[in-house]
Amino acid sequence: MNDDTRREMACQELVEVITGYLEGTLPELDRLRFEAHLASCASCQEYLEQMQALVRLTGKLTTRSLEPENVDSLLSAFRRWRDSQTGL
Amino acid sequence: MAPAAEMRSADADFIDRLRGGDEAAFVSLVNAYSASLRRLALAFVPNDAVAEEVVQETWLAVLTGLARFEGRSSVKTWIFKILANRAKTRAIRERRTINFSELEDPFEPDEPAVDPARFLPVSHPTWPGHWASPLDSWSASAEDAVVGREMMGVLHRELDRLPESQRVVVALRDVQGWPAAEVCEVLGLSEANQRVLLHRGRSRLRGVLENYFKDNV
Questions:
Q1: How many domains, in total, are found in chain B?
Q2: Which of A76, B79, B92, B137 yields a CA-CA distance of 20 to 30 A from B101?
Q3: What is the mean pLDDT of the segment spanning A37-43?
Q4: Domain region containing B13
Q5: Which of B47, B68, B93 is the last residue of a domain?
Q6: Which of A14, A15, A26 would you mutate first to test chain B, the one with the most B CBs within 10 A?
Q7: Mean per-residue pLDDT for B9-23?
Q8: Which of A19, A34, A40, A84 to probe the B interface (max B CBs under 10 A)?
Q9: How many CA within 13 A on the CB side of residue B52?
C-alpha cells in the first residue's frame, strides 16, 4: 500500500474523483477516503451537493423534437418504402 | 425475470411491425427518439437546421437498413450509431473544425476541475490541497423556482459551448439520462474515457453556475 492510499483525501483530489464517486466506480479504498474527508469538510459537502444539483438541473433541459413538417415527410418516405416492399 | 431477453424480443417484435409496414410503429419510433437524435447531432454539426437534416437522413437510413437489421444491438443503439456516423460525415462536409481525436484521447490537454489557485499549495504545513477559502453555498437555492428560468438559460448556453466530446457525453448522460454503457457503445468510447469527458463537462458547468450565483444572487 503506498502513501497515497493511506493519506487523507485533500479537497483538490476530491473534486477530481467526484464523478467516479457519483458513478460508483471509485475503488473501495478511495471511496472510504472520499467519505471520510466529506464527513469533516463543509466545503466539499457543498461541492458534492452542487454537482448533484447540476446533474438534476441539466436533466430538466429539453431538446426540441422534429418540426411537424419533417415528421410528415418522414411518414411519406415510410409509405414509399412500404409500397416498394410490397411491390417486390 | 430476464429484462435483457424481454427487451430483445420486444425489439424483434417492433422490427417485425416496421417491416410489415406498421405506420404507427414508425411514428412512435420517430417521436420517441427524434429529440435525443437531434441533441446528439447538435454535438457534431454547427446548427439546428443541419441537425434536423441529419436526423431526417438518419430516419431514411433506418428505413433502408431495416431489411438488413440483424438485432445484434438494440434498435435504439443501432439508430444512434447511424446518426453518429452521419453527423460526423456531415460535420466534415460542413468543414467544422471538430477534434474527433478528442473523443479517442480525452486526456489531452489536462484540465483541472477547479482552478488550482482556489486551493492551498501542496507545501502548506497543515492543509495542503484544501480549499483556500470556504466554498460559497448555493446548491440549495439552485433549484429554487425563483432563480430558475434565467439560470437554466445560462446552463443551456454553456452546455452548447462545451468542447464537442464533453458536450455530447453530458447531453446524453445528463440531459437524456442515458446509462454510461449505452453512451460508450454509441460513441465508441471506453468506460474510463466516457467518465473523464463527463467529469470535465460537469466540472465546467458547475463552475459556470458558481459564477452565475456570485454575480446574480
A1: 2
A2: B79
A3: 96
A4: 3-93
A5: B93
A6: A15
A7: 86
A8: A19
A9: 14
Distance from C-alpha of B66 to C-alpha of B75, rounded to nearest angstrom: 10
In chain B, which residues have their Cβ closer than 8 Å to the Cβ of A54?
142, 202, 205-206, 209
- Identify which of A47-51, B40-44, B78-82 has the greatest average pLDDT: A47-51
Is residue B99 included in any domain, yes or no? no
Report the amino acid identity of residue B164: E
Q: Spell out which residues of chain B touch residue A56, defining contact as CB-CB under 8 Å.
A: 143
Higher pLDDT residue, B88 or A58?
A: A58
Q: State how far residue B62 is from chain A, nearest Cα, in angstroms.
A: 10
Residues B159 and B88 in one domain: no
Distances (CA, A) of B216 to B138, B142, B147: 11, 12, 9
Are B109 and B65 part of one and the same domain?
A: no
State how far the Cα of A21 lies from the Cα of A35, in Å rounded to an integer.
9
Note whether A8 contacts B: Cβ–Cβ < 8 A.
Answer: no
Backbone angles phi, psi at A32, to 5 degrees: -65, -40
The residues, ordered by sequence, that sit 6+ positions from B200 with a Cβ below 8 Å of its Cβ are B106, B111, B113, B163, B166
